Amino acid sequence: MIKPRIIVTGATGKTGSVVVAELLRAGYPIRAQVHRDDGRSARLKAQGAEIAVATDVERVTDALRDVQRAYFCPPFDPYMIQGAVAFAIAAKESRLEHIVGLTQWLAVPHTPHSQPAKAG
Amino acid sequence: MKTCALLSAGAWPRKNTVFLPWGEDTTIVPLAGAQDVSRVAATLLANPGAPPQSVYALVSETPTVREMTETLGRAVGRPIRYVAITDEQWTNAVKERINPHALDHLTHLWQYFRQGEERFQATDAILIVTGRDPQTLEEFFKANARAIDAGQS
């Protein structure tokens, strides 16, 4: 059975790099999304990950092509919201079946951000 | 543990003392290790069906600042002192290494912790999802003791 391709954003980061390693070890084809080609991305490639350099909307869309699942860990930078929007648009176009997102601080279940909107 | 990593990244202007804007040493800091968070993410990506929750609160420990400092002291083998500083002092100390947006986020996070309005509680989400106990703060400090020592001036 062919395992789904998984894209890992922030793949050179503290969590992303471990997610890549864990999933490669489990036999999943991994596309590692990075901001630039450098020594860190080269190490991911050497581990077996496919590298996708993606910094703008078009490249993010390309990066998510033929991907079924995603780890989304946005960087804390001035373009965080724009990056999240670009990812959401690309994810919808690619019809991702499953996304695991990492957020900090506001993701606890009882915060208003995590509650479903009330009807009426 | 991103929060704890800061202990070795700019919080050590003088030996054996941690300078951070965390207020009183009774302030509670909710923690989860980066390795554990990553394993949760990898497990959920590999097995999207179970357990079927949409949000997982990943908090492995909720130590006070005093407990964190004592734990660090045990890990490096000598007493460590905590000195509370202002947000501005901390910002000035680390602004060369942390981008302004992340700095702003962390400053708000420290304020949130200091206010202490949230009753943080450890969760068993890491164990439930990964089947493994999360890394403890003491294990983290011991594993990084050399790097923490290297961060001292």
How would you describe what is shown here?
The complex is a heterodimer of chains A (120) and B (153). Chain A has 120 residues and is an alpha/beta fold. Chain A has a single domain, classed as 3-Layer(aba) Sandwich (Rossmann fold). Chain A has helices spanning 16-25, 39-47, 57-63, 80-94; strands spanning 6-8, 30-34, 50-53, 69-72, 98-101. In chain A, strands 3-2-1-4-5 form a 5-stranded parallel sheet, sandwiched between helices. In chain A, helix 3 (57-63) packs across helix 4. Chain B has one domain (2-150): 3-Layer(aba) Sandwich (Rossmann fold). Chain B is 47% helix and 5% strand. Chain B contains 8 helices and 2 strands. Chain B has a two-stranded parallel sheet. The chains are: A alpha/beta (120), B mainly alpha (153). The interface between A and B is medium-sized, with 28 and 22 residues.
Report mean pLDDT of chain A, rounded to a whole number. Answer: 86
CATH class of chain B: Alpha Beta
**Total strand segments of chain A:** 5
Number of DSSP helices of chain A?
Answer: 4
Shape assignment of chain A = globular
CATH superfamily of chain B: NAD(P)-binding Rossmann-like Domain
Name the helix and strand elements of chain B from N-terminus to C-terminus, one letter apiece.
HEHHEHHHHH
Strand order of the largest sheet of chain B: 1-2
- Oligomerization state of this entry? heterodimer
Low-confidence stretches of chain B: none
Radius of gyration of chain A: 15 Å
Give a short account of the largest sheet of chain B. 2 strands, parallel
How many domains make up the 3D coordinates of chain A? Answer: 1
- What is the end-to-end distance of chain B? 22 Å
| CATH fold assignment of chain A | Rossmann fold
Throw out a few tags for this protein.
heterodimer; A: alpha/beta; Rossmann fold; 5-stranded parallel beta sheet; 5 strands; globular; disordered C terminus; B: 153 residues; 5% strand
Give the gist of this structure:
Chain A has about 120 residues and is α/β, with parallel strands linked by helices. Chain A has 4 helices and 5 strands; from the N terminus they run E-H-E-H-E-H-E-H-E.
